[in-house]
Amino acid sequence: MAKQPMLKFVSVGRDMPEKRNAEARRQDFHEIYAEYADAKAKEQAGRCSQCGVPYCQTHCPLHNNIPDWLRLTAEGRLKEAYEISQLTNTFPEICGRICPQDRLCEGNCVIEQSGHGTVTIGAVEKYITDTAWEEGWVEPIKPSAERIESVGIIGAGPGGLAAADVLRRAGVQVTVYDRYDRGGGLMTYGIPGFKLEKDVVMRRVDQLEQGGVEFVLNCDVGTDITFEEIRNKHNAVMIATGVYKSRDLQGPGSGADGIVRAIDYLTASNRVGFGDTVPEYESGELNATGKRIVVVGGGDTAMDCVRTAVRQGAKSVTCLYRRDRENMPGSQREVANAEEEGVKFEWLSAPIGFAGDPVTSVKVQKMRLGAPDATGRQSPEPIEGAEHDEPADLVIKALGFEAENLPTLWDQKELEVTRWGTVKAEFTTGQTAMEGVYAVGDIVRGASLVVWAIRDGRDSAAAILDYLGDAQAVAAE
Known about the structure:
Layout: H1 22-25, H2 38-45, H3 55-58, H4 66-74, H5 78-88, H6 92-98, H7 110-113, H8 121-135, E1 150-154, H9 158-169, E2 173-177, H10 186-189, H11 198-210, E3 214-216, H12 227-233, E4 236-239, E5 245-246, E6 259-261, H13 262-274, H14 279-282, E7 292-296, H15 300-311, E8 316-320, H16 332-340, E9 344-346, E10 349-355, E11 361-372, E12 378-391, E13 394-397, E14 401-402, H17 406-409, E15 437-439, H18 442-445, H19 450-468
Parallel strand pairs: 1-2, 1-4, 2-3, 4-15, 6-13, 7-8, 7-13, 8-9
Antiparallel strand pairs: 5-14, 10-11, 11-12
Keywords: 4Fe-4S, Iron, Iron-sulfur, Metal-binding, Oxidoreductase
GO molecular function, one term: 4 iron, 4 sulfur cluster binding
Protein name: Glutamate synthase (NADPH) small chain
């Protein structure tokens, strides 16, 4: 009788892939986790309890069939595990690397709730698809028949690329417009290489390009081409721009040199990683080398900034966050990684002013948590007389992102937006009030997760296929 490959959680402990030691990983931008060996991946996948109600799947925005591909991995049927994994997820190897599993699938794992330690779902997901690429199981996009209809997608981030994949596989002609010189959006220029190495993203962009998706890069809609021109050229249009307008710091001196936006800082660093010449980096404007760095914010972008500064050789790195550790929006795993790498966190601390131009220090106000606000979170309030100066040569604003004013930028007054500036769109389909115009991802949700953008892109692409109806004709060869 075959040995039971599952339910090993009672005898096998949770074991993540080996993490490089903090000193070694401070020296480069490579990913910090090693790969699982095949036997280790099987062993960890075999810890799954195969529970009747898989909360991991329920709490995954893509509703990935997690118990199924864990079982197939444990049984050594890795190609089948990959086939099941990619049925619901366009980019499983990316989600395996950057999803906050501690807040989603792994945080809701049944054996985690019972005290046995969660199944390492993200690490196994990454292992499955990385192996699929190595073994040649990832097949090129080859539609069974070409369609004459075309869709224009504005934005080459995760939402736009996921939609392009679904539409192209159905034979639709797809053109993706993006303001940057490479596809991938924030996956390329926002998220650092130590979380997501860039060849992983570029490999997917290449797959789409080779599958017939046309990329129009260095193209700023509203300047280089009008929204109306895109709309006239295609049967449907998808807005997947993301949100890039940075929230600003207030207080005396907040306009000083040396106070920069997180998106500019991270983009410069990632461009250097590609081998690009970046004048703002070379001049020191967006370079932490030898400097005292203060990052303001408590989300994942702030964690990306502090950990990037460490790798650039900062003299010191301090993170200010106005709430406490338990109430921060970023991943606790990322905070732990940052602390290991030497970042100092000042909880319950908010900047109220800046000295020097260029900046030399931040005036910090200590806070306490008061009554809950409208969302139920305790509101930070200042402690009278509790202030100090934090030396700084470079201050990075990582306070989150808001939507750009698309109706004005694109001269499209009929494009309806919410009071937050995000595009109004139907839940699940992404349909806007404009005929044949859809919107997905952060430009609808506000700043959110890559996995939600992928979900939105896939759902909206299916809705666009319904909108286009039966193929009008076969496109010319």
